[in-house]
Every structure is written in structure tokens, then in C-alpha cells.
Amino acid sequence: MEYRMAGPADQAAIQWLWDYCFERESDPFYQWYFSQYYALDRVLGGYDGDQMDCCLHLNPYTLELRGRAVPVSYIVGVATRPEARRGGAVRGLLQASLGEMRRREIAVSILMPSAVGFYRPLHWEFCYHRLVYKLSPMDLKGFQGGPGRMRPATMDDFGRMQAIYRTFLAEKHGYVLRSFANWQQLFEEHTLGGGRIYILEEGAAPIGYLFYALQGSTLVVREMAFVDGAAQTSLLQFLHNHRSQVEHIEWNAAIDDDVLFSLPNPKGQVLLEPMMTGRIVDVAAAFTGLPWSGSTAPIRLRVDDPLAPWNDQLFLLEEQDGCVTVTPCGEGTGDVRCSIGALTQLLFGRLSVEELHRAGRCQGEAIAMAALSTLLPPMINYINEYY
């Protein structure tokens, strides 16, 4: 099978694959995605002759990673014709995507897996988890007396919502640095099926917002952000106010959210759910320029990557002017050794060196592993993008 970027002749095949595997052509999201968001030059296809048998979309975002703005490709829409499945086409497609992303100078990718067992052996590893709340409106009865007033939001509120978003994420990591275009896309996509958007203001100051939808007897929150605990209380009070209208309320939160400690009966109502995977595309590019911390002794890091030969080697990490420099060294054992998947979880801060070592996924000399642990401490990751 040949893998290459799609061209104009592939437009119908790309849309057919999406219609077959995901939303149908009549679905409002399908129509919005292909008319307002999609770009042909972001689609990589696998071809049997002239026929596109599979494809994926490399959608661009910028993440906050270790204090830097890092361009990433969000892999979505991985789709295969039914007659071409189980022949290794998508494995080859994903491997080809690594080369294409590297060509575009993208050092990191993210992917929300539908089949974890397929992507994990290819070293897309979970870097984001979230708390999922599923409860009755009456469970929020105790959240009363918060500040501010709620009102419907408009596109004129992008700046206010951006300010709330940045404050909400001030102590988080791995989140999308949203642009004006990202906010516009979020507004448009969320309101397609009747989604509602409210902003919370205390006087003239924006202090919280909600994206939600009423889906039968359930109120589903797409995104909730707030500047402090008092503002969060006001948003939960607003949700409680729907107690005569819905039977269930659902929302997602960062793993350090503490509402579960105030619920009357959180057992069975709060779940920890894996969400987003990540994979380093280019080790040298991903680590170059990282803030250096701890001992200035170099770290000899051996990475195993069966899909990307430019990563499958020894790297020398050194400190220069407070930042990491990276020298690829070819073959060698190194002071620390891990897979590209384990290294990705370290870079994102989802797992620590110590946790990976206990799991047998990171091995090496104690001094070198301690230095790597200081360089890449655990973080609280958050992301809420879906396409």
C-alpha cells in the first residue's frame, strides 16, 4: 500500500470514509466539519492503486507543554474501508503519519483512541485522564450562595471566556492554547444541535462559563471553567436549578477537581476515565529547549521506537543556558532506557520516572533516573478538544 497526502481527486473518498465510519452525511456535525473546519492538505491516505482505502486527519493545535507553546497534530478520523481492514493498512498509515508530521516539524501528536488495544502497541499512550460526574441534580443541593449572575454568552464574549479559561488552567498542563479561531469553532460546533452557552459575571468581571446541552432527561456539560471555588459553586448551583427539568447531570473535570469530596454520596457517581493519548514524533525536537532543572550532569537516554528509526537510538541530554540540548548518538546503551510511549508519558507528566520504573517500563542507573525525574516531574493535564 502507498501512503501519501490526499489531493483534490480524493475529496469524495475522504467524505465517504467519514460517513461510513463516523457521522453520516446528513448529521449537522459532518456538515459543519467539512464546510467550516476540514482542510484537504491535512489528510493522509493509504492507497491501493488509485483507490483510497484508509485515511486520517492531522488537525493542528498548540499545547502548553513544560512551559512552552508546542505545535501538535491531533490525529482524528482514522477510517478504513471495510474490505481493507485487518491487513495492516492502518498500522502503516500511522507509521507514515509520523514521517509526515516530522516533515512538517511537528514533534508531538495526540489521539483520542476508540480501540486502545490497537493504538497502545504503536506507543500512543494515555497522557490525559479525567473525572466523569454522573449524578442527580439533587446531589448538587449543597452548592448554594455563589457570587455573580449568569447570562447567555455570545461571540462577543470570546475575550472574556479566554480570560476565564486561562485562569482556570493556570495550574494545569498540556492544555490547548486556544486562538480566536478555536473559540469561534467551539461556539459554532457546540450550538449546532441546540447547545447552550452561559457566562458568569460578578459585576463587570467574568468569573465562569458553561457549555451544555439538554439531551432528553440529561443535562450534559461540554465544558465548565471558573476562576475560583466560589465561581464553581455558582456554576453548580445553576446546574442544580435544572432539577425540575432533568433527572441526570453529567460533566467532566480535571483529575484534581475536588467536588467529589462535597457530594452526599459520590460512590458510583464519579469515575476516573482515560481520555487522550500522546506520542512523541521526534525526540530531539520535543526535548530541545525544555527548561533544565536539577543537576547539570548530562543524561544518556536510550529510546526504543519500532516505528520511527530517527527516535530508536541513544540521545545525550545536556544543559546549556538553562535549557536542554539534544544530541542523537546512534547505537548505545545509555544510563536510562525506555520506550517512546513511556517517554511520552514522562514528557506530558502523566507518569513519573518512579512509577514507570515500578512498572518495568523505565530502567537505568539510579542517579540518571533521579536526574530525569527532576527534569520531568508529574503534572496535572487537561484537554477538552474532540476534533
From TrEMBL:
PROSITE patterns reported for this sequence: GNAT (PS51186)
InterPro entries documented for this protein: Acetyltransf_17, Acetyltransferase_Eis, Acyl_CoA_acyltransferase, Eis_dom, GNAT_dom, SCP2_sterol-bd_dom_sf
Keyword Transferase: yes
UniProt domain N-acetyltransferase: residue ranges: 1-171
GO biological process, alphabetically ordered: aminoglycoside antibiotic catabolic process
Alphabetical keyword list: Transferase
MF GO annotations: aminoglycoside N-acetyltransferase activity
Keyword Plastid part of the UniProt annotation: no
Name of the protein this chain belongs to: Putative acetyltransferase
